[in-house]
Amino acid sequence: MMLKIGITGGIATGKSTIAHKLRTLGYVVLDSDQVSHDLTAPGGQALPEIVRQFGFDMVDEQHGLNRAKLGALVFNDQTKLEQLNQIMHPLINQALTKQLSALDQSGQRLVFVEIPLLFETDNFIKMDQVLMVTVENKQTQLERLMKRNHLSKTEAEQRIAAQMPLEIKEACSDYVLTNDKDEYVNEQLDHVLMKIRDSLA
């Protein structure tokens, strides 16, 4: 039976960095954010309903989703954020379920699935275990988000506040990686992978 491990954490805590490290080591990692991008690309399955609920100005010049404009809208309005999640999460779950089923049928024994909002929604597939990526210094998270998404301090704080607190996610997780500095997280990841390999033996 295939072991499914969810990778989650707060925004800008380094989930994708950990996912990249795992891929480099040869592990299979699915990415819900990539699925989301595919669903909102030109011709994507989610676009018609997003346009219906939020307006045609949410579409960019290439006929895909204007992510910056939609993000600015929903992260200032919890009701609109929930509307968007109700559109996206079932479709993401459907796509991930299909990918996981194919991997299981191929004989894959272990797969990681990067799902940022794993604890915030009931729409995603249940994971067997959860690997949480966090930071000890909240300022690190804030600065990373501002730099990565070109946000003001206020905008970044709003996006962080829209998610479940890191401490609650940590308490619900099987493994926790503290990703403030790269040299420390590598050692932590090695230790976690050793435990996972032992559980599969």
Automatic annotation (TrEMBL):
UniProt subcellular location: Cytoplasm
Kindly tell me the pathway this chain contributes to.
Cofactor biosynthesis; coenzyme A biosynthesis; CoA from (R)-pantothenate: step 5/5
What EC number(s) does this enzyme carry?
A: 2.7.1.24
InterPro entries with a match to the protein in the record:
Depp_CoAkinase, P-loop_NTPase
Point out the signal peptide segment: none
- Which Pfam families does this entry report, sorted A to Z? CoaE
A molecular function (GO) held by this record is: ATP binding
**Binding annotation for ATP:** A12, T13, G14, K15, S16, T17
* Catalyzed reactions: 3'-dephospho-CoA + ATP = ADP + CoA + H(+)
Q: Which GO terms describe its cellular component?
A: cytoplasm
The similarity comment for this entry is:
Belongs to the CoaE family.
Q: What does this protein do?
A: Catalyzes the phosphorylation of the 3'-hydroxyl group of dephosphocoenzyme A to form coenzyme A.
Tell me the protein's name.
Dephospho-CoA kinase
- Organism equals Weissella kandleri
Name the encoding gene, please. coaE
